[in-house]
Amino acid sequence: MNEREIKSISKFLSLLLRHQPDLIGLKLDENGWADVAELIQKSKRKGKHFSIEKLEEVVATNDKKRFSFNEDQTKIRANQGHSLKTIDLKLEAIQPPEYLYHGTVPKFMQSIREKGLQKMSRQHVHLSQDIETATKVGSRRGVPTILTVRSGAMHVAGYKFYQSKNGVWLTDHVPAKFIDK
Prior knowledge:
Blueprint: H1 3-19, E1 34-35, H2 36-44, H3 52-61, E2 67-69, E3 75-78, E4 100-104, H4 109-115, E5 117-118, E6 125-127, H5 131-139, E7 145-149, H6 151-156, E8 162-163, E9 169-171, E10 173-174, E11 179-180
Helix pairs in contact: 1-3
């Protein structure tokens, strides 16, 4: 499968598993899992044809490890980034590293200085453990601005942090006082 086809299927999966399963009438359970056979069958109705083998390749090669299968590969879900409020990924709160990073672009800086980092339409604010990943995330919208989040201090102050299966750090809100540019 070529890179363009992998990217196309990955974007389609992100749309369905994170935001709009109703687009094809797909049912997600309360933890975000979708039946693989149902996903493949209902995707065909929208003109997206892929086999279980192609789906396995997308999951295995996705650079951000956005998706996971259950143990017997009969179910699939997005690891984080849901705008669906009914999804509970059953993540356990854990202690974060002292610093985490967030990639953004200059046009959002005024709002961030005033309100901090907000989850907006997603369930959580997404943070990276390294500057390289944050730079890659920020670059999607232009020239990146990398913010350092004093996550250790936030944790001490009572803020909860979670880590998704693919290593993305999640929290509900990052107040401006915990952000350094």
